[in-house]
Design brief:
single chain; alpha+beta; Jelly Rolls; five-stranded antiparallel β-sheet; 10 helices; 41% helix; 22% strand; globular; disordered C terminus
């Protein structure tokens, strides 16, 4: 698969017809995404929709009893977009979306996107496919939380991050991983030791190095792959390939607000 042209580094935008892109292009602006930046908050009207070019968003289900009960339910990279509620005819959602790893995006006002969707059935259909793909990922995450051991869930998350960011180094603290996976720090430490003992990763202070991607995929025990296959089916394999290794991906401690 060829790399996307620089103007359209987001896979959804790159796949648009000239007519549909013309509807959006005047309203699109490239913006920088800063780690921990909140893009959506629960039950609040969405102001902008972001087509991710670089970096990664976390979609987090927030519980009313406090941050220690929050959990990540989906991740979004250059294969996708935030604000799928707008595509589905709503103006808000129950979850929050924030920048887990900094990067860039093409941003459009939610009202402008809604207007473009109303003028183009093909644009509506195209972005609805991504909304469906994201819903499948959320359901797959729920299955992983309920049915798989922590080591498999951690392996799945690392592979999903590499899918979106490339590279083989992820700079993230044990505390942040604990919040992402909904477990306490000691559980993360044990899971990392298990994967390291199997030669799949190397774990240092606030950094994880992916040593064996294929081995990590096998270690997910099937928790990884279903959502990815469905994306490929829906978009006829438009999902970007993993970028060359060697990139250091960074995020600060306590990345879930």
């Amino acid at each position: 698969m060829t790399y996307l042209p620089p103007e359209y580094r987001n896979a959804l935008l790159a796949a648009l017809s000239k007519g549909d892109l013309a509807l959006l292009k005047p309203q699109l602006e490239r913006v920088t995404l800063t780690a921990r930046e909140m893009l959506e908050t629960p039950d609040t009207p969405i102001q902008h929709v972001y087509f991710i070019e670089a970096g990664m968003l976390s979609v987090v289900a927030k519980m009313p009893r406090g941050r220690d009960r929050d959990i990540e339910v989906a991740v979004i990279g250059r294969e996708g977009m935030s604000g799928t509620a707008v595509v589905q005819g709503d103006d808000r959602g129950p979850n929050c979306s924030f920048v887990q790893f900094g990067g860039s995006a093409m941003r459009v006002r939610a009202a402008d996107l809604a207007a473009a969707l109303g003028n183009s059935p093909s644009l509506q259909s195209h972005l609805n496919l991504y909304a469906r793909a994201l819903g499948i990922q959320v359901a797959n995450t729920a299955m992983a939380i309920g049915r798989f051991k922590l080591e498999a869930r951690l392996a799945r998350w690392l592979v999903m991050v590499q899918d979106r960011l490339g590279g083989d180094r992820v700079a993230l603290t044990h505390e942040a991983l604990g919040v992402i996976l909904g477990v306490r720090r000691p559980g993360i430490t044990v899971a990392l030791h298990v994967l390291e003992g199997q030669g799949l990763i190397r774990s240092h202070r606030a950094e994880i190095i992916i040593a064996d991607r294929d081995g990590l995929i096998a270690r997910t025990e099937g928790a990884y792959g279903l959502a990815e296959r469905e994306y490929d089916r829906l978009f006829k394999r438009q999902r970007p390939k993993v970028a060359p290794t060697g990139t250091v991906v960074q995020a600060p401690a306590g990345t879930i607000a």
